[in-house]
Amino acid sequence: MDRDHPLRRALPLVLASGFFFATLDTTGKFLVGAHAVLLVVWARYVGQMLFATVIAARRLGSGFWRTRHLRMQLARALCLVVASTLFVAALRYLPLAEGSAIAFLAPMLAIVLAIPVLGERPTPARWLAALGGFAGILLVVRPGSAVFHPAAALMALSALANAMYQLLTRRVPNDRPETTLFYTSTVGAVGLSLLLPAVEFPASVAAGEAAAFAALGVLAGLGHWCFIAAFVRAPASLLAPFTYLHLVWSTIYGLLVFGHLPDGLSVLGMAAIVASGVALVLHERRRR
After folding, report:
1. Is the pLDDT of residue 276 over 70?
2. For the segment 10-41, what is each residue's pLDDT rounded down to a tens digit?
3. Overall number of domains in the chain
4. Which of 8, 113, 241, 254 is the most exposed place for a label (fewest CB within 10 A)?
């Protein structure tokens, strides 16, 4: 690779972000087996808020919170809170790798939602990519598979909320990434804190679980920081295909931590989802 090629600096960061996010998902699945979903998601957002605030303040100074798109920032952050909550709730019942694959349906759903939300008309290639992704989901969530469970609907709704989050992010082009990251985490931390009185707290927490709760915010903060730093250093069209390596980490974690390995048809469906996503990215790159 050429020494000045943008991937040289950005690729390690985007790969690291996939590792951190997959580790975050694994930790969340481990905790949600014994604790309330809202408690697990709350711990993730509070830790992430502390991380994001420190990063934003160091990079931008005391005015890091100023935004030109307050309503849009609040709306997109709320979409991500909903997506995260549904994702963790679904992982209580779904295998890690297949569940994560369903969540990667979000870019395909964004194509469909771009019509009413942004007024865009998808090209035929975009429609083909979306259909390919949906076909992959049908293979993963087929009768008799480990993911043929009502919780798969929660994961699909999580992907839908994530798609809305992606579309609304495009409506805040003038804000710095650090400011956007601050609002993304703070809205979740504040909103979920208001719901904590309705959550049943455990009488005691083992030392390992306490460490896992503390790790949630650190992993989320590191993952988002690496992700943003990577996309500052290289175009999205170059980096987006590498984000699907998240599924490789999820598969490894699923086997090592939970003793689950996807069957042949599920692997085929996951491959179809990845292929459709990569094809979509390459198509967008050619158009630009």
Report:
1. yes
2. 888 888 988 999 999 999 999 998 899 999 99
3. 1
4. 8
Nearest Cα residue to 269 out of 92, 138, 108, 73: 138
pLDDT at 203 over 80: no
Q: What is the largest CA-CA distance in the chain?
A: 57
Burial of 2 (0-12, 13-18, 19+ CB in 10 A): exposed
The per-residue b/e assignment along 234-252, b for 16 or more CB within 10 angstroms, e otherwise, is beeebbbbbbbbbbebbbe
Q: Which two tokens stand for residue 43?
A: 């711990």
Lowest mean pLDDT segment, chosen from 47-56, 81-90, 133-142:
133-142
- Say what the pLDDT of residue 3 is: 59
Are the C-beta atoms of 149 and 93 separated by less than 8 Å? yes
| pLDDT given for residue 117 in this prediction | 67
- Residue 273's Cα: distance from chain center in Å? 15
Q: Are 227 and 24 in contact (CB under 8 A)?
A: no
Nearest to 87 by CA among 160, 166, 164: 160
- Are 146 and 286 contacting, i.e. CB atoms less than 8 angstroms apart? no
26: closest CA among 99, 103, 107, 106?
99
Identity of the highest mean pLDDT range in 19-28, 162-171, 172-181: 19-28
Does residue 81 fall inside a structural domain? yes
35 within a domain of the structure (yes/no) = yes
Q: Rg of the Cα trace of the chain?
A: 19
The parent domain of residue 65 ranges over 7-287
